[in-house]
Amino acid sequence: MRTPHALLTTTVTAAALAATVLAPAPAAGADAVPSPGTYYVQSATTGLNAADNAGAVEQHRPRGDEDRQQWNLRADGAQHLLENTDSPGTCLGRGGDRARTVACASPEARWQITPVGTDRFTLADPGTDRRLTVAPKPAGANHPAGLAVGSGTGDLATWYLTPVGPVTQPMPPQDRRTLDQVTFLTAHNAYANGVDGGFAPPFVNLFPNQNRGIERQLAEGVRGFMLDIHQTPDGAILCHNSCTLVSRPVALWVDLQRMVDFLLAHPDQFVTVFLEDYVDPGVLRAELARVRGLSEVLYRPDRTGVRENGWPAMADLTAAGQRLLIFSDHSRAADQSAGLTRDSFGVMYQREWTVENYWSMGSGAGTSDWSCYSRWYDAGTNIPLTRTEPGFRPLFVMNHFRDTTVASTAGTDNGKLADRARRFCQPAARKKPNYLAVDRYDLGDPAAAVTSLNTYTYP
Description:
- The chain is α/β, with parallel strands linked by helices.
- It has helices spanning 14-20, 214-219, 252-265, 281-289, 294-297, 306-309, 314-320, 332-338, 350-353, 407-415, 417-429, 446-453, and strands at residues 37-43, 49-53, 56-60, 70-76, 79-84, 90-95, 98-103, 112-115, 121-124, 131-134, 147-150, 159-163, 169-170, 184-187, 224-232, 235-238, 250-251, 271-278, 324-328, 348-349, 354-356, 395-400, 435-438, 456-457.
- Strands 14, 15, 16, 17, 18, 19, 20, 21, 22 and 23 form a ten-stranded mixed beta sheet that branches. A four-stranded antiparallel beta sheet has the order 5-4-1-12, with no helix packed on it.
- A hairpin with a 2-residue loop joins strand 6 (90-95) and strand 7 (98-103).
- It is elongated, with a radius of gyration of 23 Å.
- It comes from Streptomyces griseoloalbus.
- Residues 1-30 form the signal peptide.
């Protein structure tokens, strides 16, 4: 019989977890200019890519091999050239104080590339202090699209050269792979399934995001659950947009109980919950208090040195019994002003621990938009997908769904999940997706994409 593990009084202690976590290793040759090859020139500030737009060089949302964003790097004496893959003979260059594409034979196409830290570089006009730079963000707006050449400093003038075809490594053995190396199948709006209860008003409920209940989702391999919670007199309730006119909605504690029961019955499994959170912290705390056994499985990365040392091995989390990770998209600042923070009772603030791409690929039918960029990039927020910290790599939540769930479209999209993850979102984030979030996980075999990504590590 498995020994019960209470939170922070486990057989494998929090201190042991902190001692066994593995920090992400720097890329080989990270202190040198990369070898010749095809790269994205990616801003360290925004995570956006330098793209050729009719001669102007602008920062655009990462779009893989679309949108003229790929550049062939090669040496030219002591300097380097970046030739656009879509326009042979045309290179990233300078036109006065603006970045432009120019003929590769032009002196304005040459760059002095200098390492400025692990895998980061400046691109300078040779013999000057003029660098390729992102323009500062005006008040109330995003950074301008057009890239400048000037005396920029810091991250504004710092760039990643992200390989289009990166060298990956085989996945470590089960007992050594860390949480940030593993990919999990994730159900978008997992509660909106029409099986466990109501989730939306009439007519809206005709378009469920899933068609199987939480218990069956768990049985079929779903390990990430996106849940929307709204505050009502009954507590934290699972509804889409609003609980008004929703028949038989499910309380959050009910679905969490299903997950905890599953974890207690399957001690080798790990589950993550993402809350789109519209409730007061006191209401959420009371809701969690109703879940029997929660303290036995709740994982607290804030108490095990993850920010300093990286994510622990999955085997250590399993041994400690810490196998349920809960995130909220709520603001820490708002909770501090209210006098109660969610992480004080074990719910992590998602923006502090993850990065996440924008949630929609477009409407429920027609062509899809595969660009992969941060959902937290706007006039007031800038958390690029590329964000890392010394010793710590945020988990990457990759959204792959539309505004509205149409079964035939979801099936087609899910069949292309691995391709988008590898060619578009992985280089956009400079990390492998840890959570592949889809609608109708039962269509298009998205589990095959999870299996594929779990054969290697990146970088």
